[in-house]
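Appendix B. Raw example, untouched.
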Amino acid sequence: VEALRRMIDRCRVMDITISSNTNDFKEILRKLAEENIFGIDQDGNAINVAIFSVYLALLDYQEPKEIENFKFPRLVNRNFFTNDSFDLDADFNNIIKKINFNFILGNPPWKRGSDKNSLFLKYIQERKRGESDKAKGKPQITISGNEIAQAFLLRTRDFSSDQTRCALIVTSKILYNLNAKDFRRYFLHYYFIDKVFELAPVRREVFDKSSDPSIAPAAILFFHYAHGEVTGKNIIEHIALKPNRFFSLFKVFMLQRNDYKQVIQSRLIEYDWLWKILVYGSYLDFNFVKRLKEGYKTISAIINNSNLFLVGQGIMVGGGDKNDVSYLLNQIYVDTGKDIAQFYINLNPKNIWSQKYVHRPRNKNLFNAPILLITEGINKRLESVSAISYKNCVFKSSLTGVKLKDSKKLNVLIIINGLLNSNLFSYNILQTGSSAGIEREQTQDEEKFNFPYLNNSIIAEYVEKIEAISKKLFKEKQKALSSNIQTMESEKQNLINNLNEEILNSFHLNEQERALVDYAVNITIPLVMRDKDYEKELFSPLRTEDTFLTNYAEVFINRFRDSFEKRDKKFTIQIQLSNHIIRMFFKVTGEGKNKDPIEWKNESDDDLLLKLSSLGCQKITESLFMQKDVRGFERDGFYIIKPNEKKLWHKAIAYLDAEEFADAMLRNGSKENQNA
């Protein structure tokens, strides 16, 4: 209906002589509907509602007295068809294939097909047979998990000419699920992706009426069929909308600078995990994750040694068939929801296994100590929840066990436990995990075990100390009154901090990489996970001499000062701030070196606003705005102006901003040399 309205309005603008009370205008209205709007839906009620809505829209453009003589266009089975979109024998195929469409729009079902005889599955199989001879050495057509939305994306080819552009609202999981890698490879090879508008980070706000704790995330894909063209050099625009204070205040979404990225399509073909980094990271995160992936063995490579480890999920109870596990009777049972926490398992001798028959029994040796138990879910800090059981125990399939066969290698198991419970793990899962921050807080074993491993006995020592104090703390909390809990919790947190620092040192993180981890752990994760008081913590205004601003400024000092001082130029930074706006002016003068390069200045919002004639918010829709940063050069320096929000002035963002200014200087210098 909105598309039809736009066409009618465009037509009226092009020919202002058209009057709404003429027969010619009525004929134009009919033709616009008959020749331009088409739709397919297997729900007849949806078709009827669509046609009725089109009729109402046509009436809106006419005077009441003229409506009586208006003849509605006939749309049933000419424009709108009650069919399954994958029915290749239906009449609509012959009608629609003759039309050169400008746009194909849709919101396909978000579900899996359970019937093997479903038409969309037959369609994929038929296309696969038809493409098999032509596709040697190229990706083969496939969809994962019988996801019907994937089939809809591929079906658009059949109605596409060179000019056709498509936009479908699909479940975001298409872009991240591990099982959908082959689908993504095929889609990237045969289709140009023009733009991705990712709504997963704001799924709770978009679908705020839903009672489902795992709200299905949405993404809008703008794309077109390649018609044999090579897609690798295509530039994809990627926009990932993030939570912000404007939604809670005004119920509007605000796009910010770092929400927008561009990526070459071939990069996504080469690095499938880059899809997730586009949501929560930057090119700096891509380089860092790539270094971790290429520079170290994974946990998986270590535990796949069958001589040392046995890995598997626990017992599955329900399912139909019955298998005898009487050999496990009366052993201690670990309840996933109650007994396991980070670094500690409550092995309650009163909680024993009592079921003789189960659906899937697993290898009985998996339940012999020592065993590292890992939950499928992760906590709100995106940390894994894992601990080592030093006694035999039984557990269900919601836990994965890593059983050590050689007790002399216990340190390896302890180190793995430390790595899975670390800040670096949280960072890695945020940037590469298929579900975390997208749909629900969980990870697959493959994702956990793809985390890098290194052998460091100091990590093991810290983990053992944390295990010991965790055990003491648990017992202390069972007492009716205790004055030691706060002291012990503080001691435990200090040990965890030391463990995290040792892990960062072990992987040789530089200052930039440390800033990226800190930004993920202390800014992005609390924001995305809606930590308690996250708005107060992240959106409270920064004050004079705040370490956030000092650290941000020091990145620019380290990046530019030496190069200016070599030319006898002084590089200083003037920071002007108010409750709502911050301006940094990076001043370059010919006055030699300066001992204190940062100058602070408090200003009122009114004073700063006078300098912000170009700062503003561009309206995209009624509920979506784009917030601009102001950046520029003056005769004696350059400046940047942004809202007073922590996430915009973090050290990790400073590295991105500083490189952008450096690139601009290089481009400008190159132009000046060419002109000279």
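End of appendix B.
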